[in-house]
Amino acid sequence: MAHTGGGHLRAAEAIKEALCRRHGHCVSVEMVDALGEYAPWPFSRLAEIYPWWIKRAVATWRWGYRLTDGRRRATALLRLFWPWVWPRARCLLRRHPADVIVSVHPLTNHVFAWALQRLGEPTRRVPLITLVTDPVSVHPFWLSPGVDHCLVGSAEALHKALACGLKPGQVRVTGLPVSPCFVDGLIDKVQARRALGWSLERPVVLVIGGGEGMGPLYQIARAIEGACPRVQLAVVTGRNQRLGARLAATAWRVPLHVYGFVDRSREMPRLMSAADLLITKAGPGTIHEAFLAGLPLILSAAIPGQEEGNVRLAVDGGAGVWAPDPREAAALVARWLSAEDDTLARMAACSRALARPHAAAAVADEIWRAVAPTEEMLGPRR
Q1: Which of 238-242, 294-298, 344-348 has the lowest average pLDDT?
Q2: Across the chain, which distance is largest between two alpha carbons, in Å?
Q3: What digits encode the pLDDT tens for the residues 147-196?
Q4: Residue 382 located in a structural domain
Q5: pLDDT (tens digit per residue) in 182-237
Q6: Pairing between strand 171-173 and 204-208?
Q7: Which residue of 60, 67, 86, 260 is 20 to 30 Å from 371, comparing CA positions?
Q8: Is residue 27 within 8 Å of 19, Cβ to Cβ?
Q9: Residue 56: predicted pLDDT
Q10: Contact 308, 358 (CB under 8 A)
Q11: Are residues 372 and 235 in the same domain?
């Protein structure tokens, strides 16, 4: 995995948790930051570069994504860097011997497939599995024909994998894994609000900007305050301390609850359980958590390329709408919260229909089968 965005880490943690739950002491899982710990510069600094890039130079990200969004172009670019990264990949594989390798980052799939092939016996026999954390819009960087299995989140992603040269037997649609602790942590709305100290009378609009607190969250909150005086707001600012301080320093006419970086497995399910509506950027992890919580969605931002498909997933499924303008989002909230409007109830039902609560277990089973292919070897499950 790598710390370039929160989705890769969250997926890795969900897989680890599911494997440990199902197989207990029979499995040992090690999470390795392949870029931060082993990649050469500047790839080793992508954890710092990526948030800045998305916030400050998103147009160049869009161009780069589109220019490399082709099987031959993506492979050629990765081959260009191969002599540079091969020694680091070899070092990682030798320091972390394993019975199976799972990649949850797009920049590691081709590299490790080539590295395993080059290292020869017995390393080359280690199964390599890709879990694609972009459930719909899948860049060719993710899709190496050299992996043993590729686990994807949707039928659209499966078709893209086949178009990039993978065979039908290599690809499985498992859904995007969400932490089993998150699923367990979803509780009754009244119970959640009491635990959080929120009002039971006012509807709750939850606003999230991902782990970095990206997007016009302050403007969204102010617009909703003006349009919906009877609501209460909960804003998760992530690592964006400046935003948190600005929200806390502002005088509000509606109840406002500000949270920084929250535990996705324990705190986030309580926040989503307590909310009536979620406004968020189109990050895959947050969207799939919202589906599990049955939350209607207003999608306020999307990273060009990989998150555009997430918008289509929510909108086409009836669970959300695209509203990047804060005033437009506030107008939708005001209309939906009116007594005669049943939009929120219908969208909540659509959101639940899109949920895949057992995706983490399905991914864990695919990984385990790659090492222990017979049912007798699976051992007791939890």
Answers
A1: 238-242
A2: 68
A3: 999 999 999 999 999 999 999 999 999 999 999 999 999 999 999 999 99
A4: no
A5: 999 999 999 999 999 999 999 999 999 887 778 899 999 999 999 999 999 999 99
A6: unpaired
A7: 86
A8: yes
A9: 85
A10: no
A11: no
Which residues, at least 6 apart from 184, have a Cβ–Cβ distance to it below 8 Å?
269
**Which helix (H) or strand (E) is 75 found in, with range?**
helix 71-95
Q: Rounded CA gap, 129 and 152, in Å?
A: 11
Residue 204 and residue 300 in one domain: yes
Residue linked to tokens 């600094």: 45
Q: Which domain does 248 fall in, by range?
A: 181-353
Type of residue found at 354:
L
Q: At 53, which helix (H) or strand (E)?
A: helix 46-56
> Is the pLDDT assigned to residue 123 strictly greater than 80?
no
Instruction: Tell whether 26 and 170 lie within a shared domain.
Output: yes
The domain total for the chain is 2
Q: Are 109 and 103 in contact (CB under 8 A)?
A: yes
| Angle formed by the axes of helices 6-23 and 359-371, nearest 10° | 70
Would you say residue 341 lies in a domain? yes
For residue 1, being part of any structural domain is answered with: no
Instruction: Report how far Cα 182 is from the mean position of its chain's Cα atoms.
Output: 13
